[in-house]
């Protein structure tokens, strides 16, 4: 998942910010500064420690690291002993910034500060054209842990060792071992899940300072954001956020409308949308991606079903699922001593489909795994407990934001979500990410405020892709419809976010960066093959047929087993034109070895970026 940048501007006390103030000159406060500026050598992100940066390694002067004390509980006065935690951040600071862009990477729980390092060290080109004109600042909810970067665990210190995705508490392991660790299918299993999940959440509550787990929600984080904004001396902030960062962005718009500058909100998790709608839309998105995988196969000579015509991948899926319902599938590379369970049940298979298509769907890998499973080896679809999202920081961060109605806290009420989504589920996939996260949060022990849709007259740039699974395009459309002066940008293609894309799929990202730089909204356009821009007051057309939108590089498709290149690159290399659009060049055959199972596991781990 791409990092996210947040651009902050300080609000002057008592002053509302009209639209024209988007162009106010940069200001800093010379007094009452509460930021402690740190030596960035002592705050190297774990993700970049492989660069072997030492205390003697020169770092660009534009890279700055800092921390600031804030209340743990904003309902009470700040107290340096009794009500205090430390928020850390990293940022790029040019000589004469015009404003600040705050970047949020989603997750929830993915560190954003590494993006500032990547910018400074020229490891990323995503925000190169903005760095001379803006402060670019990154942090996220995990900054509430009291340290800028976790020293031992990538996800942070808030919940200590319990946040590690490889750590499974004893009580929860009982459920995993007894019930396959995926889905309760009866009242008894549902109750066992509740006991196990409550045990895990209770283990998370051993925090420093005590009680922190109750104060890691977006409501606290946006106040942290505004505290940093004020300390930096900005009147408004600009914001570039994806995935769960969009939920944060909308919350900030609602809470601090006078501080809102240029907001780019990409792949949206909306406020106030009914869970049933979200689950039904995600079921529909999963089914669409199965058709996208079929469409990809039709132009991919390395696909095992190539040449068998439209619908060959769908037919293969239906055949495999019927076999798994009849008898669990053999998975010789899975079992004791491996990362995956054997045999592979129909439930395992259904969850594997959703995992395969999350974030950046790998159609060649899915089609290969499907064919391999039909030939007696379903190892690539085996459930892998170590990559389960539930025993990670995702649980507390999500569950502190989403209230669950009492009617959903029973097996019957919970199961109805899947039953009601059946009209969208022609492939009988059933399970979705939102469905699983809702199940997690039925065990959350603390009260969560009710949610309502965020309405605003601000000019916001909302972004989505037609075939996003994590946060289907219908969710972004719902949020956009609540903000009548805003623009909706729809990227034709696959994948979860758009702002970091370059090359053939980079048109949407370029438009968003231009808006951040200039404040000029993209002009209306209707190109269902590349980008559609719908102005304020416009109407979002239906999601296009999955077969009508090109696949491949132009759609943002990637693969760990094939090189996906454009038709122009094929022409340059061979002197011939590939009339099928994007050319898929096999990157090497794979044979279902244990090492390849690990490869899929790593791919699924990347897909665990949920929102």
UniProtKB/TrEMBL annotation:
Keywords: Signal. Residues 1-21 form the signal peptide. InterPro entries: AB_hydrolase_1, AB_hydrolase_fold, Pept_S33_TAP-like_C. Residues 435-524 form the Peptidase S33 tripeptidyl aminopeptidase-like C-terminal domain. Residues 208-277 form the AB hydrolase-1 domain. This is AB hydrolase-1 domain-containing protein. The lineage of its organism: Eukaryota, Fungi, Dikarya, Basidiomycota, Agaricomycotina.
């Amino acid at each position: 998942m791409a990092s996210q940048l947040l651009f902050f501007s300080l609000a002057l006390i008592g002053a509302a910010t009209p639209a024209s103030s988007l162009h106010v000159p940069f200001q800093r406060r010379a007094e009452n500064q509460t930021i402690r500026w740190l030596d960035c050598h002592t705050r190297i992100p774990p993700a970049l420690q492989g660069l072997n940066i030492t205390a003697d390694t020169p770092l660009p002067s534009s890279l700055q690291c800092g921390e600031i004390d804030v209340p743990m509980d904003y309902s009470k006065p700040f107290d340096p002993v009794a009500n205090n935690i430390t928020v850390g951040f990293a940022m790029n600071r040019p000589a004469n910034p015009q404003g600040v862009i705050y970047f949020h990477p989603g997750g929830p729980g993915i560190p954003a500060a590494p993006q500032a390092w990547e910018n400074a060290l020229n490891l990323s080109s995503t925000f190169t054209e903005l760095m001379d004109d803006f402060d670019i600042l990154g942090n996220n909810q995990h900054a509430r842990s009291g340290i800028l970067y976790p020293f031992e665990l990538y996800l942070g210190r808030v919940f200590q060792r319990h946040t590690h995705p490889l750590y499974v508490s004893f009580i929860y392991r009982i459920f995993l071992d007894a019930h396959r660790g995926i889905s309760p299918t009866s009242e008894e299993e549902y109750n066992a899940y509740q006991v196990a999940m409550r045990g895990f959440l209770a283990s998370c509550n051993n925090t420093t300072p005590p009680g922190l787990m109750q104060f890691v929600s977006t409501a606290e984080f946006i106040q942290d954001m505004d505290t940093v904004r004020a300390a930096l001396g900005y009147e408004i902030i600009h914001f570039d956020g994806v995935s769960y960062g969009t939920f944060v962005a909308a919350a900030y718009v609602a809470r601090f409308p006078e501080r809102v500058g240029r907001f780019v909100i990409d792949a949206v998790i909306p406020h106030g949308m009914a869970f049933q709608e979200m689950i039904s839309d995600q079921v529909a998105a999963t089914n669409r991606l199965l058709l996208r995988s079929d469409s990809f196969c039709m132009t991919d000579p390395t696909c095992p079903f190539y040449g068998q015509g439209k619908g060959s991948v769908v037919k293969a899926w239906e055949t495999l699922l019927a076999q798994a319902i009849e008898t669990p599938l053999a998975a010789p590379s899975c079992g004791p001593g491996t990362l995956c369970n054997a045999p592979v049940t129909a439930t395992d298979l259904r969850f594997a489909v959703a995992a395969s298509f999350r974030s950046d769907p790998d159609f060649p890998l899915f089609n290969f795994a499907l064919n391999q499973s039909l030939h007696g080896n379903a190892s690539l679809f085996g459930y892998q407990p170590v990559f389960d999202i539930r025993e990670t920081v995702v649980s507390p961060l999500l569950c502190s934001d989403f209230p669950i109605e009492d009617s959903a806290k029973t097996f019957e009420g919970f199961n109805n979500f899947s039953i009601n989504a059946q009209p969208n589920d022609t492939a009988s996939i059933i399970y979705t990410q939102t469905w699983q996260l809702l199940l997690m949060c039925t065990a959350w022990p603390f009260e969560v405020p009710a949610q309502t849709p965020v309405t605003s007259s601000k000019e916001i740039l909302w972004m989505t892709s037609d075939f996003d699974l994590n946060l289907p395009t219908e969710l972004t459309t719902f949020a956009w419809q609540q903000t009548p002066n805003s623009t909706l940008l729809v990227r034709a293609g696959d994948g979860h976010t758009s702002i970091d894309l370059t090359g053939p799929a980079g048109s949407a990202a370029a438009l968003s960066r231009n808006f951040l730089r200039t404040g000029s909204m993209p002009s209306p356009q209707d190109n269902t093959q590349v980008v559609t821009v719908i102005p304020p007051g416009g109407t979002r057309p239906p999601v296009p047929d999955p077969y009508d939108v090109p696949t491949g590089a132009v759609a943002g498709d990637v693969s760990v087993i094939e090189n996906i290149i454009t038709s122009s690159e094929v022409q340059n290399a061979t002197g011939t034109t590939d009339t099928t659009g994007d050319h898929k060049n096999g990157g090497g055959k794979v044979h279902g070895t244990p090492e390849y199972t690990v490869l899929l596991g790593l791919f699924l781990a990347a897909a665990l970026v949920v929102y």
